[in-house]
Protein backbone atom coordinates (compact mmCIF):
# COMPACT_ATOMS: atom_id res chain seq x y z
CA UNK A 1 0.00 0.00 0.00
CA UNK A 2 1.27 3.51 -0.80
CA UNK A 3 2.23 5.81 2.09
CA UNK A 4 -0.24 8.47 3.18
CA UNK A 5 0.79 12.02 2.24
CA UNK A 6 0.42 13.22 5.85
CA UNK A 7 -1.95 13.37 8.81
CA UNK A 8 -4.36 16.29 8.96
CA UNK A 9 -6.73 17.17 11.81
CA UNK A 10 -9.70 19.36 10.90
CA UNK A 11 -11.49 20.99 13.85
CA UNK A 12 -15.23 21.45 13.21
CA UNK A 13 -17.77 19.69 10.99
CA UNK A 14 -19.43 22.72 9.38
CA UNK A 15 -19.35 23.32 5.61
CA UNK A 16 -15.75 24.59 5.83
CA UNK A 17 -14.43 21.60 7.77
CA UNK A 18 -16.26 19.02 5.67
CA UNK A 19 -15.11 20.62 2.40
CA UNK A 20 -11.49 20.81 3.56
CA UNK A 21 -11.58 17.16 4.70
CA UNK A 22 -13.10 15.98 1.41
CA UNK A 23 -10.61 17.90 -0.71
CA UNK A 24 -7.60 16.74 1.36
CA UNK A 25 -8.78 13.14 1.43
CA UNK A 26 -8.84 13.23 -2.36
CA UNK A 27 -5.27 14.49 -2.37
CA UNK A 28 -4.19 11.35 -0.51
CA UNK A 29 -4.01 12.65 3.09
CA UNK A 30 -5.13 10.86 6.25
CA UNK A 31 -7.83 13.19 7.51
CA UNK A 32 -9.98 13.31 10.64
CA UNK A 33 -12.65 15.88 11.45
CA UNK A 34 -13.07 16.53 15.18
CA UNK A 35 -16.51 17.92 16.04
CA UNK A 36 -17.38 19.03 19.57
CA UNK A 37 -21.01 17.88 19.46
CA UNK A 38 -22.30 14.31 19.57
CA UNK A 39 -23.94 14.86 16.17
CA UNK A 40 -23.40 17.16 13.22
CA UNK A 41 -25.85 20.03 13.61
CA UNK A 42 -26.76 22.39 10.79
CA UNK A 43 -26.34 25.88 12.24
CA UNK A 44 -29.55 27.44 10.97
CA UNK A 45 -32.24 26.55 8.47
CA UNK A 46 -32.12 28.56 5.22
CA UNK A 47 -29.26 28.88 2.72
CA UNK A 48 -28.29 30.13 -0.72
CA UNK A 49 -25.23 28.90 -2.60
CA UNK A 50 -23.45 30.74 -5.39
CA UNK A 51 -21.91 28.89 -8.38
CA UNK A 52 -18.25 28.67 -7.14
CA UNK A 53 -19.06 26.54 -4.06
CA UNK A 54 -21.34 24.40 -6.22
CA UNK A 55 -18.44 23.83 -8.56
CA UNK A 56 -16.08 22.95 -5.69
CA UNK A 57 -18.62 20.53 -4.19
CA UNK A 58 -18.69 18.64 -7.49
CA UNK A 59 -14.90 18.52 -7.72
CA UNK A 60 -14.55 17.16 -4.18
CA UNK A 61 -17.09 14.41 -4.77
CA UNK A 62 -20.34 15.80 -3.34
CA UNK A 63 -23.51 14.93 -5.25
CA UNK A 64 -24.94 18.30 -6.32
CA UNK A 65 -27.75 16.89 -8.48
CA UNK A 66 -30.95 18.73 -7.60
CA UNK A 67 -29.25 20.21 -4.54
CA UNK A 68 -31.26 23.45 -4.58
CA UNK A 69 -33.78 25.56 -6.47
CA UNK A 70 -32.42 27.56 -9.41
CA UNK A 71 -32.97 31.18 -8.64
CA UNK A 72 -32.65 34.56 -10.32
CA UNK A 73 -32.65 37.35 -7.75
CA UNK A 74 -33.40 41.04 -7.84
CA UNK A 75 -33.19 43.84 -5.26
CA UNK A 76 -36.38 45.90 -5.07
CA UNK A 77 -38.11 48.40 -2.83
CA UNK A 78 -41.06 47.25 -0.69
CA UNK A 79 -43.50 48.17 -3.49
CA UNK A 80 -41.62 45.99 -5.98
CA UNK A 81 -39.69 48.69 -7.87
CA UNK A 82 -36.49 47.17 -9.32
CA UNK A 83 -33.26 48.49 -7.79
CA UNK A 84 -30.67 45.92 -8.90
CA UNK A 85 -30.66 42.78 -11.02
CA UNK A 86 -28.13 40.15 -9.90
CA UNK A 87 -27.25 38.69 -13.30
CA UNK A 88 -24.55 36.26 -14.32
CA UNK A 89 -23.67 35.35 -17.92
CA UNK A 90 -26.27 33.06 -19.55
CA UNK A 91 -23.93 30.05 -19.70
CA UNK A 92 -23.18 30.34 -15.96
CA UNK A 93 -26.88 30.72 -15.11
CA UNK A 94 -27.63 27.66 -17.19
CA UNK A 95 -24.93 25.50 -15.61
CA UNK A 96 -25.43 26.57 -11.99
CA UNK A 97 -29.11 27.45 -11.77
CA UNK A 98 -29.24 31.24 -12.07
CA UNK A 99 -27.47 33.57 -9.65
CA UNK A 100 -27.55 31.10 -6.78
CA UNK A 101 -29.57 28.13 -5.65
CA UNK A 102 -31.91 28.11 -2.65
CA UNK A 103 -31.84 25.13 -0.27
CA UNK A 104 -32.08 24.11 3.34
CA UNK A 105 -28.83 24.10 5.23
CA UNK A 106 -29.46 20.54 6.37
CA UNK A 107 -29.78 19.51 2.70
CA UNK A 108 -26.20 20.65 2.09
CA UNK A 109 -24.93 18.92 5.25
CA UNK A 110 -26.65 15.66 4.25
CA UNK A 111 -24.88 15.65 0.88
CA UNK A 112 -21.49 16.50 2.37
CA UNK A 113 -21.81 13.89 5.13
CA UNK A 114 -22.77 11.26 2.55
CA UNK A 115 -19.54 12.00 0.65
CA UNK A 116 -17.26 11.64 3.71
CA UNK A 117 -15.42 8.31 3.87
CA UNK A 118 -16.25 6.16 6.86
CA UNK A 119 -14.23 6.89 9.99
CA UNK A 120 -13.22 10.45 9.04
CA UNK A 121 -15.74 12.09 11.35
CA UNK A 122 -14.94 11.99 15.10
CA UNK A 123 -17.90 13.28 17.11
CA UNK A 124 -17.87 14.48 20.76
CA UNK A 125 -14.32 15.89 20.41
CA UNK A 126 -14.20 19.36 21.89
CA UNK A 127 -10.79 20.93 21.20
CA UNK A 128 -9.26 22.44 24.33
CA UNK A 129 -5.61 22.96 23.37
CA UNK A 130 -3.10 23.08 20.55
CA UNK A 131 0.69 22.85 20.75
CA UNK A 132 2.95 23.27 17.71
CA UNK A 133 5.90 20.92 18.24
CA UNK A 134 7.74 22.00 15.07
CA UNK A 135 7.50 18.77 13.07
CA UNK A 136 3.98 17.98 14.31
CA UNK A 137 1.05 19.50 16.20
CA UNK A 138 -0.39 18.09 19.43
CA UNK A 139 -4.12 18.54 20.03
CA UNK A 140 -5.98 18.05 23.28
CA UNK A 141 -9.69 17.38 23.62
CA UNK A 142 -11.98 17.45 26.61
CA UNK A 143 -11.93 14.00 28.27
CA UNK A 144 -10.10 12.37 25.32
CA UNK A 145 -6.63 11.09 24.47
CA UNK A 146 -4.43 13.73 22.77
CA UNK A 147 -3.91 13.48 19.00
CA UNK A 148 -0.73 14.23 17.04
CA UNK A 149 -1.03 15.43 13.43
CA UNK A 150 1.20 16.98 10.77
CA UNK A 151 -1.20 19.89 10.34
CA UNK A 152 -4.30 21.30 12.03
CA UNK A 153 -7.06 23.21 10.27
CA UNK A 154 -9.33 25.40 12.38
CA UNK A 155 -12.78 25.13 10.80
CA UNK A 156 -14.42 25.84 14.13
CA UNK A 157 -16.50 28.87 13.23
CA UNK A 158 -16.75 32.47 14.39
CA UNK A 159 -15.65 31.63 17.97
CA UNK A 160 -12.73 29.50 16.77
CA UNK A 161 -10.53 28.06 19.52
CA UNK A 162 -7.82 27.43 16.92
CA UNK A 163 -7.74 31.09 15.88
CA UNK A 164 -7.67 32.13 19.52
CA UNK A 165 -4.72 29.88 20.29
CA UNK A 166 -2.81 31.13 17.21
CA UNK A 167 -3.62 34.83 17.37
CA UNK A 168 -5.28 35.56 20.73
CA UNK A 169 -8.81 36.75 21.29
CA UNK A 170 -10.20 39.62 19.25
CA UNK A 171 -13.57 41.23 19.94
CA UNK A 172 -16.56 39.99 18.00
CA UNK A 173 -18.33 42.69 15.97
CA UNK A 174 -21.98 42.89 16.91
CA UNK A 175 -23.80 44.48 13.99
CA UNK A 176 -26.98 45.10 15.99
CA UNK A 177 -28.92 43.42 13.19
CA UNK A 178 -31.08 40.37 13.61
CA UNK A 179 -32.85 38.10 11.22
CA UNK A 180 -35.79 35.71 11.41
CA UNK A 181 -35.71 33.08 8.65
CA UNK A 182 -38.39 30.58 7.74
CA UNK A 183 -39.20 28.03 5.07
CA UNK A 184 -42.08 25.97 3.73
CA UNK A 185 -42.80 23.53 0.93
CA UNK A 186 -44.75 25.05 -1.99
CA UNK A 187 -44.88 24.21 -5.71
CA UNK A 188 -44.55 27.95 -6.47
CA UNK A 189 -40.82 27.61 -5.78
CA UNK A 190 -40.47 26.28 -9.32
CA UNK A 191 -40.88 29.89 -10.57
CA UNK A 192 -37.16 30.50 -9.97
CA UNK A 193 -37.61 34.12 -8.91
CA UNK A 194 -36.23 35.57 -5.68
CA UNK A 195 -36.75 39.11 -4.37
CA UNK A 196 -34.59 40.93 -1.81
CA UNK A 197 -36.76 43.86 -0.77
CA UNK A 198 -36.30 46.78 1.64
CA UNK A 199 -38.38 49.60 3.03
CA UNK A 200 -36.87 52.43 5.10
CA UNK A 201 -35.85 50.14 7.98
CA UNK A 202 -36.41 46.49 7.19
CA UNK A 203 -35.53 43.81 4.67
CA UNK A 204 -38.26 41.24 3.83
CA UNK A 205 -37.06 38.79 1.18
CA UNK A 206 -37.70 35.36 -0.30
CA UNK A 207 -36.13 32.90 -2.70
CA UNK A 208 -37.28 29.49 -3.95
CA UNK A 209 -35.78 26.37 -2.38
CA UNK A 210 -35.58 22.72 -3.25
CA UNK A 211 -35.16 20.06 -0.55
CA UNK A 212 -35.31 16.28 -0.95
CA UNK A 213 -36.98 16.62 -4.35
CA UNK A 214 -39.64 19.11 -3.24
CA UNK A 215 -40.11 22.78 -4.14
CA UNK A 216 -40.57 25.45 -1.54
CA UNK A 217 -39.62 28.94 -0.43
CA UNK A 218 -37.33 30.41 2.18
CA UNK A 219 -37.92 33.93 3.45
CA UNK A 220 -36.31 36.23 5.98
CA UNK A 221 -37.02 39.44 7.84
CA UNK A 222 -33.95 41.46 8.83
CA UNK A 223 -33.69 44.73 10.74
CA UNK A 224 -31.66 46.65 13.31
CA UNK A 225 -32.26 46.28 17.04
CA UNK A 226 -31.00 47.99 20.18
CA UNK A 227 -29.32 46.11 22.98
CA UNK A 228 -32.11 47.04 25.38
CA UNK A 229 -34.88 45.67 23.07
CA UNK A 230 -36.44 42.41 24.30
CA UNK A 231 -35.63 39.37 22.17
CA UNK A 232 -38.77 38.59 20.11
CA UNK A 233 -40.56 35.47 21.30
CA UNK A 234 -43.58 35.46 18.94
CA UNK A 235 -41.58 35.08 15.69
CA UNK A 236 -44.66 34.82 13.49
CA UNK A 237 -46.21 38.01 14.90
CA UNK A 238 -42.84 39.79 14.68
CA UNK A 239 -42.50 38.96 10.97
CA UNK A 240 -46.13 39.60 10.06
CA UNK A 241 -45.96 43.07 11.56
CA UNK A 242 -42.82 43.98 9.62
CA UNK A 243 -44.04 42.52 6.30
CA UNK A 244 -47.23 44.62 6.07
CA UNK A 245 -45.85 46.98 3.40
CA UNK A 246 -44.29 44.17 1.31
CA UNK A 247 -45.59 41.96 -1.51
CA UNK A 248 -48.70 39.78 -1.04
CA UNK A 249 -46.57 36.72 -1.91
CA UNK A 250 -44.06 37.17 0.90
CA UNK A 251 -46.84 37.96 3.38
CA UNK A 252 -48.64 34.79 2.39
CA UNK A 253 -45.44 32.75 2.73
CA UNK A 254 -44.89 34.10 6.24
CA UNK A 255 -48.53 33.44 7.24
CA UNK A 256 -48.35 29.84 6.04
CA UNK A 257 -44.97 28.91 7.54
CA UNK A 258 -45.13 26.55 10.54
CA UNK A 259 -43.54 28.27 13.54
CA UNK A 260 -41.17 25.31 14.01
CA UNK A 261 -39.67 26.23 10.59
CA UNK A 262 -38.67 29.72 11.83
CA UNK A 263 -35.43 30.70 13.55
CA UNK A 264 -33.87 33.94 14.76
CA UNK A 265 -30.17 34.88 14.65
CA UNK A 266 -28.23 37.89 15.72
CA UNK A 267 -25.77 38.93 12.97
CA UNK A 268 -22.16 39.18 14.06
CA UNK A 269 -18.80 39.09 12.32
CA UNK A 270 -15.20 40.19 12.89
CA UNK A 271 -13.04 42.66 10.98
CA UNK A 272 -10.52 40.80 8.75
CA UNK A 273 -7.39 39.56 10.53
CA UNK A 274 -3.97 40.08 8.97
CA UNK A 275 -2.61 36.55 9.20
CA UNK A 276 -4.45 33.21 9.34
CA UNK A 277 -1.68 30.57 9.40
CA UNK A 278 1.10 30.00 11.89
CA UNK A 279 3.56 27.07 11.91
CA UNK A 280 1.59 23.93 11.13
CA UNK A 281 -1.87 25.41 11.68
CA UNK A 282 -4.28 27.39 9.55
CA UNK A 283 -7.93 28.50 9.40
CA UNK A 284 -10.82 28.10 6.97
CA UNK A 285 -14.35 29.51 6.80
CA UNK A 286 -15.83 31.59 9.60
CA UNK A 287 -12.79 30.87 11.78
CA UNK A 288 -10.80 32.97 9.30
CA UNK A 289 -13.40 35.40 7.90
CA UNK A 290 -16.85 35.40 9.54
CA UNK A 291 -19.30 36.98 7.08
CA UNK A 292 -22.71 38.59 7.54
CA UNK A 293 -25.58 36.87 5.69
CA UNK A 294 -25.91 40.02 3.55
CA UNK A 295 -23.46 38.36 1.12
CA UNK A 296 -25.17 34.93 1.22
CA UNK A 297 -21.62 33.68 0.80
CA UNK A 298 -20.11 32.75 4.20
CA UNK A 299 -20.74 29.02 3.77
CA UNK A 300 -19.84 29.28 0.09
CA UNK A 301 -16.46 30.87 0.82
CA UNK A 302 -15.80 28.26 3.55
CA UNK A 303 -16.26 25.53 0.96
CA UNK A 304 -13.95 27.29 -1.50
CA UNK A 305 -11.26 27.67 1.20
CA UNK A 306 -10.95 23.90 1.68
CA UNK A 307 -10.49 23.33 -2.02
CA UNK A 308 -7.76 25.97 -2.43
CA UNK A 309 -5.96 24.81 0.70
CA UNK A 310 -5.90 21.20 -0.52
CA UNK A 311 -4.48 22.33 -3.85
CA UNK A 312 -1.52 24.00 -2.14
CA UNK A 313 -0.86 21.12 0.26
CA UNK A 314 -1.24 18.48 -2.43
CA UNK A 315 2.05 19.41 -4.08
CA UNK A 316 4.43 19.58 -1.11
CA UNK A 317 6.31 17.24 1.22
CA UNK A 318 4.53 17.47 4.58
CA UNK A 319 7.73 16.55 6.44
CA UNK A 320 9.34 19.77 5.25
CA UNK A 321 8.16 22.43 7.73
CA UNK A 322 9.29 25.32 5.50
CA UNK A 323 7.32 23.85 2.58
CA UNK A 324 4.24 23.52 4.82
CA UNK A 325 4.56 27.15 5.90
CA UNK A 326 4.99 28.24 2.27
CA UNK A 327 1.89 26.32 1.16
CA UNK A 328 -0.22 27.76 3.98
CA UNK A 329 0.96 31.27 3.14
CA UNK A 330 0.19 30.77 -0.56
CA UNK A 331 -3.29 29.54 0.37
CA UNK A 332 -4.11 32.50 2.57
CA UNK A 333 -2.53 35.04 0.23
CA UNK A 334 -4.89 33.81 -2.47
CA UNK A 335 -7.97 33.75 -0.25
CA UNK A 336 -7.62 36.92 1.83
CA UNK A 337 -8.38 39.60 -0.78
CA UNK A 338 -11.58 37.89 -1.96
CA UNK A 339 -12.92 36.95 1.48
CA UNK A 340 -12.07 40.36 3.00
CA UNK A 341 -13.72 42.14 0.09
CA UNK A 342 -16.93 40.09 0.34
CA UNK A 343 -17.19 40.17 4.12
CA UNK A 344 -16.62 43.94 4.24
CA UNK A 345 -19.08 44.56 1.38
CA UNK A 346 -21.70 42.54 3.30
CA UNK A 347 -20.99 44.55 6.46
CA UNK A 348 -21.25 47.89 4.62
CA UNK A 349 -24.46 46.96 2.81
CA UNK A 350 -26.02 45.95 6.14
CA UNK A 351 -25.07 49.32 7.66
CA UNK A 352 -26.32 51.24 4.65
CA UNK A 353 -29.75 49.62 4.75
CA UNK A 354 -30.29 49.52 8.51
CA UNK A 355 -28.03 51.93 10.40
CA UNK A 356 -28.22 55.15 8.40
CA UNK A 357 -29.53 58.06 10.53
CA UNK A 358 -33.33 58.47 10.04
CA UNK A 359 -33.21 61.85 8.19
CA UNK A 360 -30.87 60.43 5.51
CA UNK A 361 -33.00 57.41 4.67
CA UNK A 362 -35.46 59.12 2.25
CA UNK A 363 -32.48 60.47 0.29
CA UNK A 364 -30.81 57.02 0.29
CA UNK A 365 -34.02 55.44 -1.02
CA UNK A 366 -34.34 58.07 -3.77
CA UNK A 367 -30.81 57.19 -4.87
CA UNK A 368 -31.58 53.46 -4.80
CA UNK A 369 -34.86 53.91 -6.68
CA UNK A 370 -33.68 56.36 -9.33
CA UNK A 371 -29.97 55.80 -9.95
CA UNK A 372 -27.83 52.74 -10.83
CA UNK A 373 -25.99 53.02 -7.46
CA UNK A 374 -27.30 49.75 -5.99
CA UNK A 375 -26.96 47.98 -9.33
CA UNK A 376 -23.25 48.86 -9.30
CA UNK A 377 -22.77 48.08 -5.62
CA UNK A 378 -24.44 44.67 -5.42
CA UNK A 379 -25.92 43.83 -8.84
CA UNK A 380 -22.54 44.11 -10.59
CA UNK A 381 -19.95 43.64 -7.84
CA UNK A 382 -21.19 40.32 -6.47
CA UNK A 383 -21.35 38.70 -9.94
CA UNK A 384 -17.81 40.03 -10.60
CA UNK A 385 -16.59 38.26 -7.44
CA UNK A 386 -18.44 35.10 -8.44
CA UNK A 387 -16.93 35.05 -11.93
CA UNK A 388 -13.41 35.65 -10.58
CA UNK A 389 -13.76 32.65 -8.25
CA UNK A 390 -15.24 30.45 -10.97
CA UNK A 391 -12.25 31.29 -13.16
CA UNK A 392 -9.76 30.48 -10.38
CA UNK A 393 -11.40 27.12 -9.81
CA UNK A 394 -11.47 26.62 -13.58
CA UNK A 395 -7.67 26.63 -13.63
CA UNK A 396 -7.78 23.08 -12.35
CA UNK A 397 -11.48 22.25 -12.50
CA UNK A 398 -10.96 18.49 -12.78
CA UNK A 399 -12.52 16.27 -10.10
CA UNK A 400 -9.95 15.58 -7.40
CA UNK A 401 -9.19 11.85 -7.43
CA UNK A 402 -7.48 10.12 -4.52
CA UNK A 403 -4.23 8.46 -5.67
CA UNK A 404 -4.56 4.72 -6.34
CA UNK A 405 -3.33 2.33 -3.65
CA UNK A 406 -4.14 4.63 -0.73
CA UNK A 407 -6.56 2.95 1.62
CA UNK A 408 -8.77 5.33 3.59
CA UNK A 409 -7.15 5.79 7.03
CA UNK A 410 -7.75 8.31 9.73
CA UNK A 411 -5.58 9.61 12.55
C1 LIG B 1 -28.77 33.83 9.42
C2 LIG B 1 -27.63 33.40 8.55
C3 LIG B 1 -27.84 33.16 7.21
C4 LIG B 1 -26.78 32.78 6.39
N1 LIG B 1 -27.02 32.56 5.07
C5 LIG B 1 -26.01 32.16 4.28
C6 LIG B 1 -26.26 31.87 2.91
O1 LIG B 1 -27.37 32.00 2.40
N2 LIG B 1 -25.21 31.45 2.15
C7 LIG B 1 -23.95 31.28 2.67
O2 LIG B 1 -23.06 30.87 1.92
N3 LIG B 1 -23.70 31.56 3.96
C8 LIG B 1 -24.69 31.99 4.78
N4 LIG B 1 -24.44 32.27 6.09
C9 LIG B 1 -23.06 32.15 6.63
C10 LIG B 1 -22.74 30.69 6.98
O3 LIG B 1 -23.70 30.19 7.86
C11 LIG B 1 -21.38 30.56 7.65
O4 LIG B 1 -20.46 31.35 6.98
C12 LIG B 1 -20.93 29.09 7.61
O5 LIG B 1 -21.74 28.29 8.43
C13 LIG B 1 -19.47 28.97 8.06
O6 LIG B 1 -19.09 27.62 7.98
P1 LIG B 1 -17.89 27.07 8.85
O7 LIG B 1 -17.79 25.62 8.53
O8 LIG B 1 -16.71 27.93 8.68
O9 LIG B 1 -18.33 27.29 10.37
P2 LIG B 1 -19.62 26.69 11.21
O10 LIG B 1 -20.71 26.45 10.25
O11 LIG B 1 -19.79 27.68 12.28
O12 LIG B 1 -19.07 25.33 11.75
C14 LIG B 1 -18.14 25.29 12.81
C15 LIG B 1 -18.16 23.89 13.41
O13 LIG B 1 -17.10 23.78 14.37
C16 LIG B 1 -17.57 23.14 15.54
N5 LIG B 1 -16.72 23.58 16.68
C17 LIG B 1 -16.67 24.80 17.24
N6 LIG B 1 -15.77 24.82 18.25
C18 LIG B 1 -15.24 23.56 18.32
C19 LIG B 1 -14.27 22.94 19.17
N7 LIG B 1 -13.65 23.61 20.17
N8 LIG B 1 -13.96 21.64 18.95
C20 LIG B 1 -14.55 20.93 17.96
N9 LIG B 1 -15.51 21.46 17.15
C21 LIG B 1 -15.84 22.77 17.31
C22 LIG B 1 -19.02 23.63 15.65
O14 LIG B 1 -19.80 22.80 16.47
C23 LIG B 1 -19.45 23.57 14.17
O15 LIG B 1 -19.92 22.30 13.80
C24 LIG B 1 -25.48 32.65 6.93
C25 LIG B 1 -25.27 32.89 8.30
C26 LIG B 1 -26.33 33.28 9.09
C27 LIG B 1 -26.08 33.56 10.57
Describe this structure in words.
The protein is of the alpha/beta class. The protein has a single domain (7-173, 269-394), classed as FAD/NAD(P)-binding domain. Helices cover 35% and strands 25% of the residues. The strands form 3 sheets. Strands 3, 4, 5, 6, 12, 13, 14, 15 and 16 form a 9-stranded mixed β-sheet that branches. Strand 8 and strand 9 form a beta hairpin. Helix 1 packs parallel to helix 4 and helix 8 packs antiparallel against helix 9 (321-354). The model has no long low-confidence stretch (mean pLDDT 94). Residues 11-17, 34-37, 43-44, 47-49, 125-127, 155-157, 161, 179, 181, 265, 285-287, 291, 293, 296-300, 302 line the site of flavin-adenine dinucleotide.
**Small molecules (ligands, ions, cofactors) in the structure:** flavin-adenine dinucleotide
The SSE order reads EHEEHEEHEHEEEEEHEEEEHHEEHHHH
Task: Look at the structure and name the CATH superfamily.
Answer: FAD/NAD(P)-binding domain
So what's the overall shape?
Answer: globular
Mean pLDDT over all positions = 94
CATH architecture: 3-Layer(bba) Sandwich
For the largest beta-sheet, the strand count, sense and barrel status come to:
9 strands, mixed
Structural class comes to alpha/beta
Strand residue percentage: 25-35%
CATH top level assignment: Alpha Beta
Query: What is the share of helical residues?
Result: 25-40%
Number of domains: 1
The CATH topology corresponds to: FAD/NAD(P)-binding domain
Quaternary organisation? single chain
Number of strands: 17
Distance between the termini: 17 Å
Radius of gyration (Å)? 21 Å
Total of DSSP H or I helical runs spanning 4+ residues = 11
